[in-house]
Amino acid sequence: MTESESLAIITGMINRAKNRFSETGTLYLLWGWMIFICCITQFILLSFFSNGHSYYIWYVTWIAVVYQVYYVVKKKRTQKVRTYTDEIVGFVWLTFVICAFIIVYVLIKNDALTAINPCVLVLYGIPTFLSGVILKFKPLSTGGFICWFLAVAAMFTPYEYQLLLLALAVACAWIIPGYLLRSKFKKEN
Amino acid sequence: MEDERFSEHDSLELIARMINQAKNYYYESGLGALLWGFTNLICFTLAYIDATPGGVKLPFNPFLLMIITFVLQFYYDRKEAKFKHASTYLDEVHKYIWITFGVSVFILTIAGAIANVGYIVLPMLLLLFGIPTVISGCIMKFKPFVIGGIICWLLCIAAFFYKSYETYLFVALGSVAAWVIPGFILRSRFKKNLLKQQHGV
């Protein structure tokens, strides 16, 4: 490959990538609404019906997992350019998913239910804040800060009310930024 | 006119020169990894000795030693800022990854201690150690960091089921796997590259 060819490729890639804001907000909205509904439903089951199996509601999240796999595979097929930013954000969220699985698994096995939500909230803040600064999208980084603030509050809150804090966290960190991302994507594309 | 004389070869040379100038020696030479790796190794080993029943009781909190590392890091950051003419996108991403890590550790240790959930702090630290390490490894395409981060996560799972003062040693081991060993590998690779550049190979 000659120097002119390599420069042409660099220029072309930059031009193709810089005109497209690739974050549609779909996954933020999917997971935001899914967790929000699960939290509120579990809170109602616990508070008003004293249901001992209220945690079963979380099995619904498998629907979101299946949809996400379908969505990611479809996106990979149609996506022409995968930017460096896309790649970094991908690593950040992959790391988060692994850590969330580990922490929920070990805390359930240790019967430490009251510690799950504060720990999960600390973890929610990490990819949300990082995605915000990487994408230079302030609502996400603010959402990350709110998660950390609510993580501290959750440490001093009884389990059932922690669910409301979790719902508030996903609303601030994923649902609101998700809609804002969607409108930004529509405007720029 | 200037543009006409600036050939494609010159452009590529300029890009290469800019990349070299923007290199972050603190991360890329392994200095940061070694500094924090050894700090954690020493602090958590001392904490283990201090917590061992019938063992030596230290007259100070071993984690206060981290202040020295913070001062050293501040010194290196200042020194690097003096000769570095540009910063890369990666520098910025790295900076935020470590800020995020620092905030998470701070929240967990302070709030965890106040809320009396201290037993989860050490395993959670191992989980958090793994996050920036794996992300850095993936971004830098440097496998030892990725492996070190995964070892931290495995140690985290082990530490949750092995609730004892010995968990301090798990954290010390995690910092060796995540930072000390990768730090030495990064350093030797960095020195080799430096030699190659000096001899024009």
The class by helix and strand makeup of chain B works out as mainly alpha
How much of the sequence lies in strands of chain B comes to under 5%
What pattern of helices and strands is seen along the backbone of chain A?
HHHHHHH
Largest sheet of chain B: none
* Oligomer category: heterodimer
Helix-residue proportion of chain B: over 70%
Mean model confidence by pLDDT of chain B: 83
Structural class of chain A: mainly alpha
Query: What is the count of structural domains of chain B?
Result: 1
Low-confidence stretches of chain B: none
Rounded to an integer in angstroms, the radius of gyration calculated over CA atoms of chain B is 20 Å
Helix content of chain A: over 70%
Order of helices and strands of chain B: HHHHHHHHH
Strand content of chain A: under 5%
Cα radius of gyration of chain A in angstroms:
19 Å
The general outline of chain B is elongated
Task: Tell me what the structure shows.
The complex is a heterodimer of chains A (189) and B (201). Chain A is 81% helix and 0% strand. Chain A is an all-alpha fold. Chain A has one domain. The radius of gyration of chain A is 19 Å and the shape is elongated. The mean pLDDT of chain A is 86. By secondary structure, chain B is mostly helical. Helices cover 79% and strands 0% of the residues of chain B. The chains are: A mainly alpha (189), B mainly alpha (201). Chain A binds chain B through residues 3-4, 6-7, 84, 88, 91-92, 95-96, 98-99, 102-103, 105-107, 109-110, 112, 114-115, 118-119, 122-123, 125-126, 129-130, 133-134, 144, 148, 151-152, 155-156, and chain B through 8-9, 11-12, 89, 92-93, 96-97, 100-101, 103-104, 107-108, 111-112, 114-115, 117, 120, 123-124, 127, 130-131, 134-135, 138-139, 149, 153, 156-157, 160-161.
